[in-house]
Each structure stands twice: as C-alpha cells, then as structure tokens.
Amino acid sequence: MKSSNLADISLSVIVPCFNEEDNLKFQVEALLNESWDESWEVLLCDNGSTDSTVKVIKRYSRNEDKIKYVDASKKKGVSYARNRGVEEAQGELIAFIDADDIIATGWVPAIAEGIRLHSFVASKRDQFVNDNKVGNKINTKNPSKGLIQYNYVDYLPFSGGCGLGIRRKIHEKIGGFDEELIYCEDTDYCWRVQLQGIPLIFWPKALVHVRTRESTMDLFRQGLNWGEYNALLYKKFKPYGIPNVSYLRGIKLWVKLLRRIFFLWKKWQRDTFIKGLGYRIGMLKGSIRFRVFAP
C-alpha cells in the first residue's frame, strides 16, 4: 500500500475497468462535470482489457489533469484493480465506482462529506437499462432505500462495490479487497470493515445510477455466480459468528422461489425468478466446490 504522503488531494475516486470502451465515457464525463471546491482525482484502473478501453483511458488522462491511468493488468479481478487504484491514489478519502455505471450530479462532494462524517458509507443506488447506440437517456427505477440485508441467515448488512466510500487507513487496515474472490468481494469487504467495529452507513445524498442486465442468460449467470460465491462467503465467515444454516432454511428458500412460477406474466417477475433460480443452483454448486454445507 502507498504511504501517507497525500499532497493536496482530498478524495480519490477508483474506477476498475475491463472491456468498457462503449460505456466508460459516460461515467468519465459525469465525473468531469462534477463541481467541488477541493482537490480530487479519478483513477481509471485497467484490468487487462482486450478492446479499446486503454485507448479511451489514455485519451482522457492526456487531456484532463484529474484523470489518471493505472495499469492493473497483472492479476485478473475487480478486487485487484480496486486495490491497485488505492495504491496509486493520493487522497485520504477513497471512493469506489464502476466503469459502466453513471454517478448522479453532486455525487463527488456528497460522498466526500459522507466519508468524513462516518468513515464508511454506501451510496444510494437506482437502476437503469441503456443502449448506448441510441443515446444515453437514463430512465431510473428501483431506488435503494437502505443497505442490503443479508437474507440467507441473519448477519451483517452490506452494499454493492459501486458507490462505497471509506477512509484510506481503514481500507489498508483490513488489507483491501480479497483478491481471491471473483464475486461477492464487495459483501466480503463490507463485512470485514464492520467486524473491525466500523459501521456501514447508508448515505442517500450520494446517488449512483447502476446499469442493469437485460438478457435472461445474463441474469441467470449473475445469479449463478453470486450463489456459488455466497457459499464460499458463508464458509469464510463461520469463524466470525455467521449463524449455522439448517436443511429447513434451504428448503424454505427453494419453496419461496418455486412459488414464483405462478406469477411470471410480467417481465420483472420472470427476471426475478430466473436470477433467483441461478442463485439457488449456484449455492448448490458452491457447496460442492468449496466443501461447505450451504443448502
């Protein structure tokens, strides 16, 4: 990790990037349109893109002092890219966003205020579906009203990796993001911070528009991946007080999912079912792969 010689920069915004040549410009332009009376920087951390993402990043970094290119290609994974960004960052306040999302106006000063007041915060998020070929009109839906409650068993809340804000010293104390986790790394990060006695605070002043997946296969695959690595999380945090799960809990979750079969006439209902089905199958897959009882 980088030493504490932080110059005059107050906030560092870390953006992991992988094959985002079509989407990245919208996030970067939103950042460049932000106004704040303190000094801040944006670190675009390329995780080994095979498209033109690096060209897009370098074009911005050449023309905008605020934008910095970080080579994060040595190891695959969003966790490594975020950690590399913090290593190169100069700010004491650290914020994480994703390359394919778009911050709302006023997010930069809002997230900085939240970190200063509470040390560890999660942005408010809403969702949008966008086809960049026909412009960038954002029709948002489903705004978050708080932190995400872990519903497999009763445990700590969390939030997605996009929109988290934290003090650098806390990030360094817990060793950053777990680079061995391909998925659910944000949940793991939130839990490890809270286990240090630092609460995660929902900060609705800072809003991020999160891009959603449209295709059925993408939703199923996302659910599958999350389910598989949720089994690993459950195993990882058993020594830290996560409650034991019973067969009955697993059966109840399957029954709850299968009852949705009778309510699939709307697209959002079908999407919820498909993603949930992927998640439940992923949990079974993760139980076998990681040798843990997670029904």
Automatic annotation (TrEMBL):
UniProt keyword list: Glycosyltransferase, Transferase
Stored Pfam families: Glycos_transf_2
Principal EC category: transferase
Enzyme Commission number(s) of this protein: 2.4.-.-
Ranges for domain Glycosyltransferase 2-like: 12-174
Superkingdom, natural source: Bacteria
GO MF annotation list: glycosyltransferase activity
Protein name, per record: Glycosyltransferase
Top-level taxonomy: Bacteria, Pseudomonadati, Balneolota, Balneolia, Balneolales
